[in-house]
Amino acid sequence: MIEIEIEIEADAWTGAVPGAEAVVDRAAKAALGSVEGDVVVLLTDDESVRELNARFRDKDMPTNVLSFPAPENAAPHLGDIVLAYGVCVNEAEAQGKTLADHLSHLVVHGVLHLLGRDHEDDGEAEAMEAEEREILAQIGVADPYIAEQD
Q1: Count of domains forming the chain
Q2: pTM
Q3: Helices (DSSP H) in 3-138: which residue ranges?
Q4: Each residue's pLDDT tens digit, 64-99
Q5: 31-42: per-residue pLDDT in tens?
Q6: In angstroms, what CA-CA distances link 2 with 18, 25, 55, 100?
Q7: Which domain holds residue 37?
Q8: 17: domain CATH number?
């Protein structure tokens, strides 16, 4: 069984992305595929993400998405994903994407991290990006990397 728990801590998300919970749920389930387990997704603000990034990654700045894989003994919980509203809005605008599509991409990206994918080297990055493209195409979201190739 797959369960996606969505918590909206920053109200700006609901105003900017109508049906934000449905967008997150669809993207997370698509990324999980046949993997069973549960995921918690927190839609919050830049300051909350900055604090988490500083505490857990020693990077005192907000970032778009953070993934926190659960320990193996926490099954069926796979982990938590946290997204920063302001960073995501700015990125979507800069990349000419809707916030809903960018949110879908980042949720897929975060779930893939929970499943053990990474992008530490070029080979891993290419494989992860290909998997993201495939998953996003399944839910009708355009290739998020196409603008970067122009």
Answers
A1: 1
A2: 0.95
A3: 12-16, 20-32, 46-57, 85-95, 99-114, 122-138
A4: 999 999 998 998 999 999 999 999 999 999 999 999
A5: 999 999 999 999
A6: 23, 10, 29, 22
A7: 2-149
A8: 3.40.390.30
